[in-house]
UniProtKB/TrEMBL annotation:
<keyword id="KW-0812">Transmembrane</keyword>
<protein>
    <recommendedName>
        <fullName>ATP synthase subunit C lysine N-methyltransferase</fullName>
    </recommendedName>
</protein>
<keyword id="KW-1133">Transmembrane helix</keyword>
<dbReference type="GO" id="GO:0016279">
    <property type="term" value="F:protein-lysine N-methyltransferase activity"/>
</dbReference>
<dbReference type="GO" id="GO:0030061">
    <property type="term" value="C:mitochondrial crista"/>
</dbReference>
<keyword id="KW-0949">S-adenosyl-L-methionine</keyword>
<dbReference type="GO" id="GO:0032259">
    <property type="term" value="P:methylation"/>
</dbReference>
<keyword id="KW-0496">Mitochondrion</keyword>
<dbReference type="GO" id="GO:1904058">
    <property type="term" value="P:positive regulation of sensory perception of pain"/>
</dbReference>
<keyword id="KW-0808">Transferase</keyword>
<dbReference type="InterPro" id="IPR026170">
    <property type="entry name" value="FAM173A/B"/>
</dbReference>
<keyword id="KW-0472">Membrane</keyword>
<dbReference type="GO" id="GO:1905706">
    <property type="term" value="P:regulation of mitochondrial ATP synthesis coupled proton transport"/>
</dbReference>
<comment type="function">
    <text>Mitochondrial protein-lysine N-methyltransferase that trimethylates ATP synthase subunit C, ATP5MC1 and ATP5MC2. Trimethylation is required for proper incorporation of the C subunit into the ATP synthase complex and mitochondrial respiration. Promotes chronic pain. Involved in persistent inflammatory and neuropathic pain: methyltransferase activity in the mitochondria of sensory neurons promotes chronic pain via a pathway that depends on the production of reactive oxygen species (ROS) and on the engagement of spinal cord microglia.</text>
</comment>
<keyword id="KW-0489">Methyltransferase</keyword>
<dbReference type="InterPro" id="IPR029063">
    <property type="entry name" value="SAM-dependent_MTases_sf"/>
</dbReference>
<comment type="similarity">
    <text>Belongs to the ANT/ATPSC lysine N-methyltransferase family.</text>
</comment>
Length: 155
């Protein structure tokens, strides 16, 4: 889902670091934020052992306390309850060139640009440029039809 893309990558809730390490091996400057310190220490050790400690960095951090504005590639494998709030956070923070990859649990309101896999292995890709284009068209139409204030998906 991130083939042929460049730029910094973040895995939100990086667990044992496997996504960040794989991304670093593909040439991305990659960062993981993870609440569990043991997993962060283990991830750093893995990155060092696999020779990518220069381009794979891990921080002990709560995802709600950091900004993802600087990342153009965002990966998330979270839990369903967080997806709605995370969607709003990413809408506010990400640049138009960002692509977001959601594993297992999709975002509730965004429409994916690409989907792959099936069942619990389904992965969705969302391009912020598409989302912003739809948002802009909606704003223009809502002005014409007097729908200001309605949620994009509801309207
Ligand atoms: C399903 S695992 C995904 C791990 C990894 N991204 C992967 O795909 O293998 C979700 C991870 O998110 C972490 N997590 C949950 N809430 C978090 C939060 N508020 N801030 C940072 N990490 C969090 C958990 O500790 C867990 O390691």
């Amino acid at each position: 889902m991130l083939q042929h893309r460049r730029g910094p990558l973040v895995d939100i809730g990086s667990g044992d670091g496997r996504i960040v390490i794989a991304a670093a091996k593909e040439g991305f400057p990659a960062v993981g934020y993870e609440l569990n310190p043991w997993l962060v220490w283990y991830s750093r050790y893995r990155a060092w052992r696999e020779g990518v400690h220069g381009s794979a960095r891990f921080y002990i951090s709560d995802l709600w306390k950091v900004t993802f504005a600087q990342y153009s590639n965002v990966v998330i494998f979270g839990v369903p309850q967080m997806m709605s709030q995370l969607e709003k956070k990413l809408e506010l923070e990400l640049e138009d060139d960002a692509r977001v990859i959601a594993c297992r649990f999709p975002f509730p309101h965004w429409t994916p640009d690409h989907t792959t896999g099936e069942g619990i292995d389904t992965v969705w890709a969302y391009d912020m440029s598409t989302f912003r284009g739809r948002e802009k068209r909606y704003k223009q139409l809502s002005h014409v039809y007097g729908l200001e204030g309605c949620h994009l998906e509801t309207a």
